[in-house]
């Protein structure tokens, strides 16, 4: 399936299907440099498939460090020098082949080299269905994730489902975390459909019908980011589960979407304590589901909430010195609220006891 | 005098006068962090004046390396970590006090920290009348200047003429290069007015009436950048003198605007050779004027044109493998043309012989 963004200008297509990669030939620039930056693991697994699909054999390939490791400033420096030494000009374009981190990193290169050149996203993970949409790109600082970045829309997103076949379980769970988050944002029914289709890690790892759910997730995200590209309002809802999740991810190094799912659980506890959307029952259903899918809940037992809280204080969405969290008020209805340290500490104690029941 | 940009949105004021600095108090954010990044030399010379004009004494000051030295990636990394460790949020703002390099560097920090925060430009040099206008920000790569950057408009430009009193001659000549370039872009009459007002370095260093000419320069630049913010067309004319100039600057380390003035001379020779705007007489008048003002023309005697040409080939405005240069067709009428290596070599030989006449 192909869909197109609906911004006021500079729209781009999102091509989502098996064997989508061949479509990339329509987006290569003639007489200009097309430079592929590819996750080294993806390159190892899929080199033949990728080369077979690229008709233009002059394309330069640069393999980059796999996953989040590439998003360091020193690495950004070395890769940007490498690209600049190829004598690129403003018509040159970059092609990112890899997961969310690859897209963030290459997107930030494209946003800043020569003050902005084109790039194409070729996501190879489930998680990248989220990060490839919406134009957020960036790298990490030592004090936190994605703190240096930009908004830079790709020229096209080419989402080839073939790449998903080699994903490990952790990667599937991580991507599924964002799929599930988008379902929550859209409607309760969407979340029941997901739980129905993928009742356990066994069914989830088969990824049957995943294109339908990826499309739903992408559409939900697009609706939001087109309404509020620069996160002045409703786009903040996409941070559901991320305030606690980012802290947990940063400290424990579990996968992004796994941390987000635990962050969603954390948020549900605060919802319940504030008499908002959740209650004991909805929380139990959710915890049991996370256990069925194998989310690493036990990491909570060794996590230091003081350090997580310190990290939460640094979130770029905060206002003044208070922590801002997305909370759920009703079905598909969200609010952004200040949350006190006491509330966070109480919710953490409850989280710990719930996962050990 | 105060004028306002006329973009479709996100306009900002430009305040140009003696003692303008006190106006900064109207732009400071209450209950949010205001962080001043200031050129260490400017801080040393003007610390008391600056502190006396800032009513809010909570403002954090970070001194940065003076001039172009700050625009290195490793320095960008260390200063961005320093700012992030202050727990900034998206409402925080940076204030750049310094010359063009300071504005470029701090602007790039503001463009990328948390994917973009506000910044205020407080230019302290003549040259910064150019770089503070138009939203171009960035840092250098080892292969060339300003190759990593963004477009990011300031919230305000506060141009306090008091700072100009301590500028050395080289700095004055450098800034005057861009003032003169803006005059050429606007009309012949403007260039005659400049030559009239400042017939030699003695008059120029007094900077009498400079506010009038700075205003004219800013207005010329604004007209162009508002019409073509992202340099798809007419904004390229602002690169008059820069293709050769950047190469000369990079190799010889003379001041930016001094190199641009020599680049304008170089461009005049090509104009003449192509039967465009210039002729022997206009070139002689211009060379004599450069000598009166003390531009470092003799640097040409030791410059290696092969290396300059290699640098010109890397210009981000090039298309494919050809060098693009701004040439003058008539009064205030410009064109962008491919220039061959032979033409560049011929013009260089002529330049060398002209300056030694």
Automatic annotation (TrEMBL), chains A, B:
<keyword id="KW-0963">Cytoplasm</keyword>
<keyword id="KW-0057">Aromatic amino acid biosynthesis</keyword>
<feature type="domain" description="3-dehydroquinate synthase N-terminal">
    <location>
        <begin position="62"/>
        <end position="173"/>
    </location>
</feature>
<keyword id="KW-0547">Nucleotide-binding</keyword>
<keyword id="KW-0456">Lyase</keyword>
<feature type="domain" description="3-dehydroquinate synthase C-terminal">
    <location>
        <begin position="175"/>
        <end position="318"/>
    </location>
</feature>
<dbReference type="InterPro" id="IPR056179">
    <property type="entry name" value="DHQS_C"/>
</dbReference>
<dbReference type="InterPro" id="IPR030960">
    <property type="entry name" value="DHQS/DOIS_N"/>
</dbReference>
<dbReference type="InterPro" id="IPR016037">
    <property type="entry name" value="DHQ_synth_AroB"/>
</dbReference>
<keyword id="KW-0862">Zinc</keyword>
<keyword id="KW-0479">Metal-binding</keyword>
<keyword id="KW-0170">Cobalt</keyword>
<dbReference type="GO" id="GO:0003856">
    <property type="term" value="F:3-dehydroquinate synthase activity"/>
</dbReference>
<keyword id="KW-0028">Amino-acid biosynthesis</keyword>
<keyword id="KW-0520">NAD</keyword>
<comment type="pathway">
    <text>Metabolic intermediate biosynthesis; chorismate biosynthesis; chorismate from D-erythrose 4-phosphate and phosphoenolpyruvate: step 2/7.</text>
</comment>
<dbReference type="InterPro" id="IPR030963">
    <property type="entry name" value="DHQ_synth_fam"/>
</dbReference>
<dbReference type="Pfam" id="PF24621">
    <property type="entry name" value="DHQS_C"/>
</dbReference>
<dbReference type="InterPro" id="IPR050071">
    <property type="entry name" value="Dehydroquinate_synthase"/>
</dbReference>
<comment type="similarity">
    <text>Belongs to the sugar phosphate cyclases superfamily. Dehydroquinate synthase family.</text>
</comment>
<protein>
    <recommendedName>
        <fullName>3-dehydroquinate synthase</fullName>
        <ecNumber>4.2.3.4</ecNumber>
    </recommendedName>
</protein>
<dbReference type="Pfam" id="PF01761">
    <property type="entry name" value="DHQ_synthase"/>
</dbReference>
